[in-house]
Structure formats: C-alpha cells, structure tokens
Amino acid sequence: MIKFLIKGLLRDSHRSRLPLAVVATGVMLTILLTTWITGVLGDSINLNAKLATGHLKVMTRAYRENMDQLPVDLALTGTDELIKSLRTDFPSVSWVERIEFGGLLDLPDENNETKSQGPFAGIAADLFNEGSGERERLSLDKILVDGKLPSSPGEILVSSMFAQKLGIKVRDKVTFIGSTMFGEMTINNYTVAGTIRYGSALLDRGSILIDISDARKALDMEDASNEILGFTGSDYYDDAKATEVMVSFNKKHPEDHDQFAPVMLRLRDQNDLGTLIDLMSGVVGLISFIFILAMSVVLWNAALIGGLRRYGEVGLRLALGEEKGHIYGSMIAESLIVGIAGSVIGASVGLSLSYLMQQKGIDLSKMMENATMIMPGVFRTRITPQAWYIGFIPGIFATVLGTMLAGVGIFRRQTATLFKELQS
Amino acid sequence: MENSEIISVHDLTKRFPMGLSEFTALRGINLEFSRGEFSGVVGPSGSGKTTLLNIIGLLDNPTDGDAIILGNPSRSLSVREAAMIRRKHMGFIFQTYNLLPVYTVFENVEFPLLLLSMSTGERKKAVLEALAWVGLSDKEKSKPAQLSGGECQRVAIARAMVKRPDIVLADEPTANLDADNSHHILQTMEKLNKELHTTFIFATHDEKVISYLRRKITLVDGKVSHDEVLKP
After folding, report:
1. Which of A33, A160, A361, B160 has its CA 20 to 30 A from that of A345?
2. Same domain, yes or no, for A82 and A34?
3. Residue B97, pLDDT score
C-alpha cells in the first residue's frame, strides 16, 4: 500500500513537485534570511566589539557618563595594576588597554603651512607587542590599503577616506593637535606608515590608528588609559559569560562617590548593541514563526486545492472500504515525505547560497558612507549550527499542518453523498 | 445458488431534511435479493434508486426500517464495520468510471486488493484474471487517459470484480457510453454474473440495461410499484 501511494505521489506533479517546490523555496528562504540576519547583525556586533566596545569594557564612572565625547581627562589611572588584577581574576578573558581620543590632523605643505586639516577619532592600541593580539584582532593585515603597518614609534595609520579627503599620502608627515589628559594643548608629528579601510564608513570617514605608547606620550597618559577592553575566548560575543564577569567585577567595585573608580560594562550596554543582540536572538524564532505561518497558509491552500482535485479519489477509496482514518493517515504520510524531501532540497540550496554569501559577501559600502554607527560595509551571511536545522521546522511542520487542516474535510464528509459526488 | 438470500430490506424509509421540511426518498420498501441475481432498480429521476443503492451499499443508514446485508443489520454496524463489509464483499461501478488517473490499468484494478492485504503474487494473479474477464489483458500498462470510455468502464468492472465480491452495485453504468459499448459491458457483466454467481444490482433508467435484467424492480415516488421477473 505504501509503495502504491508513493508511486501515485511521484507520478502526480500536483501532489509532489508543486508542494515540493513550495517547501524547498520556503526552507531555502528561511535559511537565507536567518543566516543573513545572523551574519549582518553578528558582523556589526563583532566589528563594534573589536573597534570600540570589546566584549567587556572597564572605564571610570565619569567616563561612562560622557563616553560619546571620548574624554581623555576622565581616564583610568594606575592601569598597570588594574589590568594585572583583571588578568588574575578573569584569566579566560583577554584584557587590552585602548585609548580613544579626538583631535585635529594637520597636513603641512613644503613651507610647513597648513595644506589641509580635519577632525578625527583616534584609536590607540598595543600594536608593537606581539602578545597583545591587537594586530590580529583589528585585522590590520587585511584592512591595510596602502603602505605598511607601523613598525616603530612615531608611525601611524590613517583611514583611507580621510587620507583621500586631506590629500595625505604614505610617508607624509602629519601633525596631531589636541589636548592632554590634563587639559593642556599637545602638538605631535607623525609619519603616515599606511592607509587602512575598516569597512565601516563611520571610522573610514575620519580616523587614525596609533600605537598606545605614542598616544600616551602625546596625551600625557603614563599608566593611564580611558578604556580597558576584555574579549571572551570565543570570536563571538557570549552574553552570559560577559554578564557573569561584569557582575563579579562590579561587586568588587561598588558604586560610591568616587567618579574615577572603575566600572565594567558589557558589549550589550554600549552603543545600543543590546537591541541588536536581542534582535539577533529573537529574529530566528520570529522568522521561523512567520514562515511556519505563511507556509502553512500556502500549503494549506495547496493541500485544499489538491484535496479538491483528489475528491474523486478519496470518495472512491471510501467507497471501496478504506477507512477515513487510513486515508487521512496516508495523506499526512505523503505530506511528511514531501516535507522532508522539500526541506532537504531547500536546506541544501539555502546552505549553499549562504556559504557563497558568507565567503563573497555583498559590498554595500557605497550605500553606507553616511552611516552614523559602526557597521560593516560588506554584508555577509553566517552559517551557524542553527542554520542546519532551522529550515526543517517550517518545512516539515507547515507541510504536515497544512495537510492536516485540509484533510479535516475527509472526516466531515458524509459517506452517503459519495455516489452523487462520484457521478459528478 | 440463486435461492440463498443475501440482502433483505424491511419497511425501509429514508427521509432527508430539506430546509424546514423533509423529503421522503423511500417509503416502506420491502425487498429481498438472492445470491447470483442480475436485478435492476428502475424508475425516473428522484424515484429513490440511488438512495436504495446507498443503503444496500452501507454508505447511508435508513431513517426507519432496516437493511440486512450478508446477515448484518445495517443500523447496528459501526462506520468501521460497514467499511470492512464494503472492502471484502462489495464492488461498485459508477457512471463516470472514477479510475485513478496517475495509475495504470493494472494498478487501478489492483487497488481493492491492497486494502485486503493480499500477497503480491496473489494480487498479480487476480488482477490479470480480472483483466482477462473484461478483455483488457493487453492494456494493463496503459493509463486511463489512453483508453476509450468503454475501455475505462471495463477497467471499472474489473476493479469491482477482482476481489470476487458477493455483491456489485452499479449506478447508471452505461450513462456515458454509446450503444455498442453499453452492450459490450453489459454482456461482460452478465457473463461474470453467471460464471462467478455475483449478485448484480443496477440503478438505471436505460432501456439497454433493462433488456439484460432478469429481475426489474420499479420505484415510483419512493415506493415499489412493480417487482417482476423478466427472465427465469
């Protein structure tokens, strides 16, 4: 009987190929959308973590209140001791010092008069110490557009769009004009070792990257930095682990009146990234729900139309003595076969396309030039373990649900009307 | 053989609700059918022929009275038991053939046997035999769309007969056929009736069918107006 029903299923394109195509398309779209959103939001979160927020960030309470102004005068002091204790207390987290600062970058002409000038946001990181992992974390080899990476003090990297705007070339001498941690004016000369492109328009528009020792000298920040970033072991943000570390640290440093006492924030507490994280974790369930709903409606309709087409067949089977429950069961079994087969096909295509888009990405950097938050310019999908099975939920569930709903008609059917139906 | 009673209906009444009132399709019918009969229920449209066939075929229940089918009172049968009797002991032939279009002739005829859980070998033997009865041995691999109307109805007869049922109910089996094909399938059914002693009950108003009947039951307004033996 099963063989007989499968034969019918394979031969009848309305029962097999059409629903199979609908299921495969739905599953493929579910996977693509899930991996796309996970990829784009995940990359945004990662980029923010690497460049600005870390997975955890330690700062003074005063700095926390004015973080968007990058105030160096509200920086942490005695950071050597602080980072040592952080490494002791939380050895599974990688701790690095960063200084974020602002100022003016001046490009002089041959007469040392200003040729061009522009404001920038600077990131100072430990570039010369191999053990810091900052070169890898910031992917400096990948983002270098021209020139070389800084190899000695006094060398800086300038973002490519900023360099283009000011007419800065590799090996040019530039002057940083700003204020020290103590509010005094500071003027320092640097050599442009190379230009970089982060892939985030916000940073590429006007930023420099400098070794932290150079920044400390320029800003008079010996044994100080305005931020200590922590990165949990995984490449991706682990909210539970970050929360555990933050709670433990902040318990040790309770809120008091000392505005320069350290406080720790998680990634989700900064730059509205909490919304992105919640969106990312909620979005997969939401997509599945929407697709289950939409596909259930589509497949319900397809099954209803199929049921109408098969009205004669069902009537005949009832007349020949097949039980209603058996017919209903066989229709559900058919839909299960279609659901599984469609899900496998849809998942294969969806995962293949996702893999392709994970490798190649879609470059939307031109459209992101005016972005006001750190976002990647190249959008990529990300295949997570969830992506391997997420499509099967709507693929199988919706198909079976649609058939179950459509098949209710079998039980409502009066056997007595069979002759009339079969004569029509 | 023809003397053993396999169907009897007593004071059979069937009423259908029609809006606020009721339509009475059968009014106190009393009939008996013996094994091997070749009978027809004839009458104009609306006389109650199909309703009577439905009740005999255990597809519907009477409002009053009862039908005893193969010793089973229809009113006491559950839906499952009724389906079981149809599956094992009854064959149906419809006006519009109702063949399954995606299956071959062989598979269409095989279908009732699948419901009886017969072995593959037994099924094959029975299907080939049934196709031989109706002269379609060479069409076993054809699909219904490749057959003429007459051939389709012969497949339907083979499907009804393949399990060698006790009773075959045929509702207007010639309505879609021309005269030649009608005679051909009626001769086939007559032959099977004689060879296998299957009880055939037709619902018809086709004179061609009536000319083959050995017993004619005339229904008028839900009542038996004549019950006559045409051929001994």
Report:
1. A361
2. no
3. 86
Helix (H) or strand (E) holding B177: none
For the stretch A77-129, pLDDT in tens is 999 999 999 999 999 999 999 999 999 999 999 888 999 999 999 999 999 98
Please identify, among A198, A231, A264, the residue that sits at the C-terminal boundary of a domain. Answer: A231
- Residue B2: the pLDDT is 47
Same domain, A281 and A390: yes
Mean pLDDT of A357-379: 71
Query: Which residues of B touch chain A, with CB atoms under 8 Å apart?
Result: 50, 53-54, 57, 59-60, 79-80, 83-88, 90, 92, 94-96, 98, 100, 102-103, 107, 110-112, 114-115, 171-172
- Does some domain include residue A101? yes
**Amino acid making up residue B95:** Q
Ramachandran assignment for B28, one of left (phi > 0), alpha (psi -120 to 50 degrees), beta (any other): left
CB–CB of B59 and A416 under 8 A?
yes
Mind telling me how many Å the CA of B212 is from chain A's nearest CA? 23
**B90: which 2 tokens?**
């009854």
Interchain CB contact of A413 with B (< 8 Å): no
Encode B140-159: b = buried (16+ Cβ within 10 Å), e = exposed: beebbeebeebbbbbbbbbb
Task: Determine the Cα angle at A258 with ends A244 and A93, to 5°.
Answer: 25
User: Which residues in chain A are contacts of B57 at CB distance < 8 A?
Assistant: 319, 419
The reply to whether A286 and A411 lie within a common domain is yes
Q: Range of A127's domain?
A: 56-231
**Least confident piece of the model among A36-40, A298-302, A414-418, B225-229:** A414-418
Q: Is 50 exceeded by the pLDDT of residue B1?
A: no
Q: Is the residue at A331 inside a domain? A: yes
- Residue written as token pair 């190929």: A17
Question: Domains, chain B, ranges and CATH?
Answer: 5-229 (3.40.50.300)
- Report CA torsion sign: A252, A254, A256, A260: positive
Same-domain status, A33 and A74: no
Distance from CA of B163 to the nearest CA of A (A): 11
Q: Do the strands B199-204 and B167-171 form a parallel or antiparallel pair, or are they unpaired? A: parallel
Q: Most A CBs within 10 Å: which of B55, B74, B102, as the mutation test of the A interface?
A: B102
Q: Clarify whether residues A138 and A22 are in a common domain.
A: no
CB within 8 Å of A190: residues ≥ 6 apart: A154, A155, A156, A173, A174, A175, A176, A210, A214
- Averaged pLDDT, B33-53: 93
Contacts of B114 in chain A (CB under 8 A): 1, 4
Which residues fall within 8 angstroms of residue A393, CB to CB, at 6 or more apart?
Answer: A288, A292
Contacts of B110 in chain A (CB under 8 A): 4
Q: Is the pLDDT of residue A374 over 80?
A: no
| Closest chain A CA to residue B49 | A419
Tell me: do A280 and A396 sit in the same domain: yes
Q: Quick one: A135 and A173 in the same domain?
A: yes
Residue A240 lies in a domain: no
The reply to whether A415 falls in a domain is yes
Query: Is any Cβ of chain B less than 8 angstroms from the Cβ of A329?
Result: no
Residues B182-212: tens digit of each pLDDT: 898 899 889 989 998 999 999 998 999 999 9
| Number of domains within chain A | 2
Q: How far is A14 from chain B (nearest CA, A)?
A: 11
- Tell me the pLDDT of chain A averaged across its residues: 86
Q: How far is B82 from chain A (nearest CA, A)?
A: 8
Residues A378 and A409 placed together within one structural domain of the fold: yes
**ipTM > 0.95 for the complex:** no
CB spacing of A321 vs B88 below 8 angstroms: yes
